Amino acid sequence: MDIYQVAIRPLFFNLVKADPEWLHQQTIGSLNWLSQTSTYPPGSWVNHRLEKSLCLYDSRLEQSLFGLKFPNPVGLAAGFDKDGVAANIWASLGFGFAELGTVTFHAQPGNPRPRLFRLPLDKAALNRMGFNNSGAAAMAARLSQEKQELTRSIPIGINLGKSKVTPLEAAAQDYLDSFRLLKDLGDYFVVNVSSPNTPGLRSLQDAAMLSAILELLQTENASQKPIFVKIAPDLTWEAIADIVSLAKTYQLAGIIATNTTISRDQLKTQVIEQTGKSPQSEAGGISGEPLRHRSTEVIRFIWQQTQGQIPIIGVGGIFSPQDAWEKITAGASLIQVYTGWIYEGPLMVRRILKGLLDHLEQSGLNSISEAVGLETKTKK
């Protein structure tokens, strides 16, 4: 029995109707405590129980990509652990990697509340958080201390965003300032130019502006840390092709597809209870099930454009093993979850991994890497 789905989720979502952001803060606070006490009782006991219940280890799920070893392809997407306060605990929850942030150079409170809403009829969320975080210096101090105390068992990525107070013409320097503080503390880095919740940010996906950011970062990147760019699902195919070209030019490690969408097509939710307004009249990005098909289309397009030569991290609308398999066979080497994990609960990662192993057996494959892009390969 999945206690989360049977009791915990109905309690907080339906009975108590807890505010999503408050609930998130309580969760991240508990995970922060567990991360800090994971090597001491009683935290070590809880940590051991979590690993036993939630983790699944199988060599067929392992991959080595851009110089890093991933024990499994399911990662935590950026946005959940914005300040990196639970960096040491994500492996115990079954994840094969985790992405911290989005972090900005200047600490910022984000947009006014309420700014996070559940859309249960659509298995979705609407957020306009606005990169609320404590800033790159605070994250650097925290991760420096933790790195001295613990050895990471999974790769940890850091998602970088532009500070709201920084004008667009100074964006490249803003990303560089964050990277300089954090470059020795993350295993890979992500240039986030695709959130809809910072004014003008998505304009940085324009080839000229993105080129300026990538040029500065790669010049600074003497240790050759893998750098990704995270793109929006709402881009035209031409604009995505331009970013693919830039990824090749600046020797990026890969592309993350995709961020949240500003589309409101075919939503079942008519009114958001907290505001009394329709999703169409509320600002923010939609994540979850409504994003699933489009993000897979983008993954497929990038895979075909690059003939599988640029690694893709697929994110958007993953709830089940079948959802994960679709992303991987479309071309994603790794996948990330967030909204699905909120709806499905902590056992979701293990269920997905078990399902992926079942798919491998049914397809006669020996490893998850053989499944990447399988959909296109079999059509040739």
Automatic annotation (TrEMBL):
FMN binds at A78, G79, F80, D81, K82, T102, N159, N192, K230, T258, G288, G317, Y338, T339. Keywords: Cell membrane, Flavoprotein, FMN, Membrane, Oxidoreductase, Pyrimidine biosynthesis. Substrate binds at K82, N127, R128, M129, G130, F131, N192, N197, N259, T260. It is found in: Cell membrane; Membrane. The keyword Flavoprotein applies. GO terms for molecular function: dihydroorotate dehydrogenase (quinone) activity. Catalyzes the conversion of dihydroorotate to orotate with quinone as electron acceptor. This is Dihydroorotate dehydrogenase (quinone). It comes from Nostoc linckia z8. The lineage of its organism: Bacteria, Bacillati, Cyanobacteriota, Cyanophyceae, Nostocales. The gene is pyrD.
